[in-house]
Amino acid sequence: MKSIKPIILCGGSGTRLWPESRKKLPKQFINFFGKDNLLDLTLKRISLLKNIKSPIIISNEEYRFHIAKSLEKFSIIGNCIFEPIGRNTTAAIYISSILSNHNDELLFLPSDHLIKNDELFIKTVENTLKYKLENQWAIFGIQPNEPHIGYGYIKISNNSDQNNILKKVLKFTEKPKIDVAKYYVKNNFLWNAGIFMGNSKMIINSIKKFAPNIAKKCDIAIKNGRFENNNKNVYFNLNDFKKIPSLSIDFSVIEKADNVYCTKCEFDWDDLGNWDSLIKYKKNISSNKKVVQIDSKNNFIKSNKKVIATVGIKNSIIVDTNDAILIAKKTKSEKVKNVVEELSKSKIFEAFENNFEIRPWGKFENLFETKNCKIKQLTIDPKKSLSLQYHNFRSEHWLVIKGKAKVIVDDKEFNLKKGNSIDIPQKSIHRIINETKSELIIIEIQMGTYFGEDDIIRIDDQYGR
User: Fold this and answer.
1) Which residues contact 42 (CB under 8 A, 6 or more apart)?
2) What is the pLDDT of residues 362-371, one digit of tens each?
3) What is the three-state SS of 421-441?
4) Which one, of 360, 429, 347, lies nearest residue 396 by Cα?
5) Who has the most CB within 10 Å: 22, 111, 117, 409?
């Protein structure tokens, strides 16, 4: 059997799953289903493929630490292509094809979809590879179980000369109105899953033919690109990337090509595009027992900390996070994207940022802030440490509330345990190290005149920042 090189498309902001999913932490990095996020589940799935080559993950460079953490979690060595800004799937697919070997069979997978039967998925991919010709696109179609206006639709031929696996695509339709969607479901159209396969040389030639300007601008970006970590990580110049037209591969190429074939899939698939999609798989994604419902029924309530009480509320979705609450009627969650648009217009940062941030060493959460004081909770993962750094405009006080910390302050070493604290004077060179196998939690009190991230002056940083 021929080998497969997976290409994981790891962009997108997941605005329909706000307030959990935001631009700074989109849905592919959120643990909706236990200990693994959607990218983790995608990596686990492709590891089941036979004759697999090392994957390529293409994403925005601000997500590089999330991706590194997932690769490390499963001991996967992959190549990462980091875009300075998103330019849709045509550019991502062209660049990843150029940076593959030109006889590779590439399998393109979104990082944020849910597939319930991994074994059936693997069988479908391997059967498709077995019968697909080198000069063909092979896309994956899903049998609809309802008329859905959020998906594209595919009409396929009833005839096949390739063991009934691949059938020629006759028509594509993007996200139709509900009446049209109902017609498509009755007439055996398939959902376009956004998963497809193709020979890298064929893909490059197709994009050059149908989207030559995108190919040309991508070639310039690649030529000026920065290759790091033995060419495993690729970065691009922002000005080069801004000149690349932003178009989906469906619109720019596949809908125009005549060599597109489709595999009809039997596995359960969902793009988890909104809360209505997600709650089909989870009654409540919460361990919070402080939820009280009076004369209320058929509600989905997600809250980790707060007491949530409902009276006379039915058929609703309630999602509570540290800094935002969503209340929506079921079947209406597609319009959550409009909420994000309104918040963005008003420049309300909760539209795209959380009150916590993920770092390569763990995360921090903002607890309190005034003009001259800021309080954070730092969670340092096992065997991780912060950079060696100092600040020009603030001092800090650290209190250990869980775990054990090794602290460096101006070449002096301190070992702190739960309940111990230490002062970090302004301009002192310092670092926190967690040498244990358990997480370390520290309350950090900053005092000063400026708290911006650019006042972190790094002397030594193992994460390359």
Assistant:
1) 8, 28, 109, 110, 111, 113
2) 999 999 999 9
3) EEEECCCCCEEEECCCCCCEE
4) 429
5) 111
As a whole number of angstroms, the distance between CA 26 and CA 48 comes to 25
Q: Where are the domains of the chain?
A: 4-271, 276-349, 356-460
Distance from C-alpha of 95 to C-alpha of 97, rounded to nearest angstrom: 5
Q: What is the pLDDT of residue 286?
A: 53
pTM of the model: 0.88
In terms of CATH, what superfamily is 356-460? Jelly Rolls (2.60.120.10)
Residue (of 113, 3, 102, 1) closest to 55 by Cα position: 3
Q: What's the token pair of residue 81?
A: 């292509």
Please name which of 389, 433, 437, 438 lies closest in space to residue 415, comparing C-alpha atoms.
433
What is the spatial distance between Cα 370 and Cα 172, in angstroms, rounded to a whole number?
54
Position of tokens 């036979």?
50
| pLDDT class of 203 with cuts at 50, 70, 90 | very high
DSSP state of 251: I
Tokens of 23: 């631009």
Question: pLDDT tens, 4-47?
Answer: 999 999 987 778 999 999 998 999 999 988 889 999 999 999 99
4-271: which CATH architecture? Alpha-Beta Complex (3.90)
Tell me what pLDDT residue 418 has: 97
